[in-house]
Amino acid sequence: MTIRPARMEDVLEIAAVHVRSWQAAYRGLLPRAYLDGLDPGQRIGQWERSLSAAGWFHGRTLVVDAGGRLSGFVS
Question: Rounded mean pLDDT of 42-68?
Answer without folding.
Answer: 83
